[in-house]
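Researcher: For the record, we're logging two predictions in this thread. I'll number them. Prediction 1 follows.
Model: Prediction 1, sequence and structure:
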Amino acid sequence: MRHLFSKNYVRIYLWIGMIFTMIIIPFSMFLANQFSKYAYSQMDLFNRDTMLQTASRTEFLLNKLKAYGLHMYQDRTVQEWLQSASRSPLDDMDALHALTNYMSTEPFIKRAYLVNVHKEQVIDSLKGLVSFENSGMRRY
């Protein structure tokens, strides 16, 4: 074995291999570090864009819901039903009809309620007219 390392070409080959290894290892680590930084920055940009899109969509949806609620409340039939204290089947039917008309214009709203605290009644867009006890609401 000692005789093998005494030859010049073997020593030169080993020295070149060690020098090559000493150059490649730091360079590889540098490239891995640069790639990690790049991947991290790309993930940060992607997450930021996704968060901004989600915030924008949420804000749009909330503004649309607010406008929908205000528009529905401005309807005279709905206002009268919400503020009346007397029970009238015709007023109940008109308010339910107005609610169904508003529900048909907004496809992303699956269910809506009109709550009359004076009469303790609720108009549910799926069930119709129900009392507080049957709707699951409690009087406070």
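Researcher: Logged. Prediction 2.
Model: Prediction 2, sequence and structure:
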Amino acid sequence: MHQTQQTSHTALMATVFAAAVAMAQPTIAAEAPAVELVPVDVANLYIKTIINHDEASVAKLNAYLRPTRLAGQQSAEYASYSGLKETDAKFPKETGKLIADLFPAAMHAAVTPAAELLAANVIAAKNGAVCQATKADPVTVENGMQTAAVSFECQVVKVPVAWAAAAQQLAKSGCKVEQCKAGLQKIAASYTSSPKQTWRAVFAVSREKNSEAWRNDFARETFDEIWEYL
């Protein structure tokens, strides 16, 4: 795991996407889901929704969770595909500005295109991570709740230095305008040319007995760890 990236940057990038995913609160009673899925299948839908912003997975996860959410008097949709794509579209400009602001004010206009390119490559690397749930541990039961721990792994780009730390180092190097631009372009290129690394983690899904959908109301907390690799 890249330790060079500051926790504040991980939290910032995670917050960018929070508004696009409607995080549900736990419920007690719920209708049975329209389609029966096993925990590994559900985990894969969460992965492809939150990490990859895959349209088909968003639709399928929304349909699967909808009866449970409605029974708990929550909004029908867990995630908004249009909202996710909107945040993706805004990411290069908004994050590019954060990167450009690391440099002296006189350089901002000159380095902004390279900063936005870097941000675009970062979000493309995140959305393009190849992930798969691999196995589910036996279901455990506690206080009437069934829980299954699902192991998964993702192939994530392995850059020499994570974008936030790399940009900070470059900004502090005293580089001239053309050197700074070239440096940002080099960092951006590392997100398309570097080898992959494997991120392994465990994602838990739960339900009350057999009466509702397998779910994780705080799924983003697990999957936001991917920013520590970027």
